[in-house]
Specification:
The complex is a heterodimer of chains A (306) and B (262). With 306 residues, chain A is of the alpha/beta class. Chain A contains 11 helices and 14 strands. Chain A is elongated, with a radius of gyration of 22 Å. Chain B has one domain. A two-stranded antiparallel sheet of chain B has the order 1-2. The chains are: A alpha/beta (306), B mainly alpha (262).
Chain lengths: 306, 262
């Protein structure tokens, strides 16, 4: 992928609000056809980064190129080719579902016939055609979210930016939206996604980065990150004894204590699990596949961010 | 990044169009105030109070009280339509509906959004004035064709008050605080701009303050037009309202950028 020119090239991207640094000199590149994820706890700087991408926040330092053009000087031109789905459901409650799309199309200078056709196509694609004359408050949460994504696609963008697209949705709605996003990705759309759901990131993203306190902690493909930071499996041991801890220390196996549980990270789960469960396990002991969530919690810690 | 006036393109009309679309959906409700308000005021003040007041001396003539206050009502209508549009209504769009946030992700910039809102406010003043002119014509207290000059005055006055309203929207912390400019800015003007009684009734110092009010200058333009009299002082009223807008429009753009873009 790296031989292609990047869709987004950010270097030393920085955003400060007074004394507070929200984004602390991050560098990353996103390539055509890729789905790239921003992960991180609240306050990691995900939304601040996204807001810089469409000019809502001016940069405090660093450089940002989108489609190979400096955003600072070409903001309007670049915005014609980006679709943004913001975190808030900021649909226009004064307008109907279809009008929301048509009025937005006008901001992108789409002529009436083209806008009508595009709106029709998107309402079909997102299963909203039966609600086209409804007012926004009449829509379910899932429908509203789909309409926000549909609206972000009205200008047929080259880059789709989604800030927490499935937050607050029920599992059915989430899966339906993922399905739609997969179809869009298959057509070659470049997608940038922020999310709090690790399964969403693991399912959707080719590559992702985990951020915390305005910095990038790691970057890579989901499976590579799991392999690199956790190994293949996690063994969870309830109320581990001192012998087990000494055994692990002796063997040099990485582990983490979480209140009454011990999490053991290992590449070779089965053999180790058999040994531990037979010799050291008194209360409870389970073996499971390592997930992106393990990576996330290992890197960002378990403390609450509020 | 360029900021301020030089970044504004014709795209501000997109905001005007958006607001027009919403207005067109609910035009029946929007037409009720400019139809009912002058009727209520004319009945209460014209017939009720006017009976006691009798005729009013104005420009060396004596005119009926209803004919005197009709241009005052038109002027107040011009002020209120744009001012309330760019204060309460724009604030709801900005703060609660996050409409501006959504539009900022499109090729429009903030200056275009805000200018579009202000010009829309002026358009509301113009449309409400047109409706009110029709209603007042039935009372036979407007002189045509000169009363038609009130239409461009409505747009200019609407621009001045729309921009002033947007300046308040740029600095106000919560929607309740709009009570302050309404009480300190709109209400004094409503009463002391030559709307319901001639300014000559006031002591000199109060008259001097009244000539600082933009509404006074709208009244100065509307009353002669409504009564079919032309006066030289009207040029100054046009200049005043133009200068007022030339200060408040850029100020509103500046204050809104300071508020929304960090």
């Amino acid at each position: 992928m790296t031989q292609l020119a990047p869709v987004i090239a950010a270097a030393n991207l920085t955003k400060r609000f007074g004394d507070f640094t929200a984004v602390d000199g991050i560098t990353f590149a996103i390539f055509p056809g890729e789905c790239f994820g921003f992960l991180g706890p609240n306050g990691a700087g995900k939304t601040s980064t996204i807001r810089m991408l469409y000019g809502f926040y001016p940069l405090s330092a660093g450089s940002l190129e989108i489609f190979g053009r400096d955003l600072h000087h070409n903001l309007r031109e670049v915005k014609y080719k980006i679709g943004v789905c913001q975190q808030d459901n900021n649909l226009d409650p004064d307008l109907s579902v279809r009008e929301n799309l048509l009025v937005f199309a006008r901001y992108f200078d789409l002529v009436r016939e083209k806008a009508e056709a595009r709106a029709q196509e998107l309402l079909d694609f997102f299963g909203l055609i039966h609600k086209q004359d409804a007012r926004i408050p009449e829509l379910s949460g899932g429908m509203q979210r789909r309409l926000v994504v549909a609206r972000a696609l009205i200008n047929d963008p080259t880059l789709l930016v989604l800030d927490e697209p499935t937050t607050g949705l029920d599992p059915q709605s989430r899966h339906q939206l993922w399905e739609k996003l997969r179809q869009l990705k298959a057509r070659g759309l470049c997608i940038l996604l922020t999310t709090h759901y690790m399964d969403e990131a693991a399912q959707m993203c080719d590559r992702l980065m985990i951020m915390d306190q305005g910095r990038i902690l790691v970057e890579g493909a989901p499976l590579d990150l799991i392999g690199r930071y956790i190994g293949g499996n996690v063994i969870e041991v309830e109320e581990p004894g001192g012998e087990l801890l000494e055994f692990l220390k002796g063997e040099g196996i990485s582990s983490e204590t979480e209140s009454t549980r011990l999490l053991i990270y290992t590449a070779d789960g089965e053999a180790l699990f058999r040994r531990i469960s037979q010799q050291y396990c008194s209360a409870g002991c389970t073996l499971r596949q390592a997930t992106l969530e393990d990576v996330f919690l290992k890197l960002t810690g378990r403390g609450l961010r509020e | 990044m360029k900021t301020g006036l030089q970044t504004i393109s014709w795209r501000f009309l997109r905001i005007w169009q958006r607001n027009w679309d919403v207005y067109a959906r609910t035009w029946r409700i929007n037409f009720i105030p400019p139809i009912l308000e002058p009727i209520l005021y004319l009945v209460a003040f014209g017939a009720g109070l006017g009976y006691l007041v009798g005729e009013i001396p104005w420009e060396g003539r004596r005119i009926g009280y209803a004919a005197f206050i009709a241009p005052g009502l038109l002027s107040i209508n011009i002020m209120q339509n744009s001012f309330f549009e760019t204060t309460y209504t724009s604030f709801v769009r900005m703060y609660y509906q996050k409409t501006f946030d959504a539009i900022l992700a499109t090729p429009l910039n903030l200056e275009e959004i805000i200018l579009g809102e202000i010009v829309w406010g002026a358009t509301r003043s113009l449309m409400a004035t047109a409706v009110m002119l029709v209603v007042l014509s039935f009372f036979g207290i407007l002189s045509y064709p000169s009363a038609l000059l009130i239409l461009p005055v409505a747009f200019l006055g609407g621009l001045a008050f729309g921009a002033a309203g947007m300046c308040f929207t740029g600095i106000i912390p919560t929607i309740e605080v709009f009570n302050l400019p309404v009480f300190l800015f709109v209400t004094p003007m409503f009463l002391f701009s030559g709307t319901f009684f001639p300014l000559e009734q006031l002591p000199f110092w109060a008259r001097a303050i009244a000539y600082g009010f933009p509404l006074t200058h709208i009244v100065e333009l509307c009353r002669p037009a409504a009564l079919g009299v032309y006066r030289s002082g009207q040029v100054w009223a046009v200049i005043y309202l133009s200068l007022f807008s030339m200060v408040t429009v850029p100020l509103a753009l500046f204050l809104m950028r300071r508020r929304l873009i960090h």
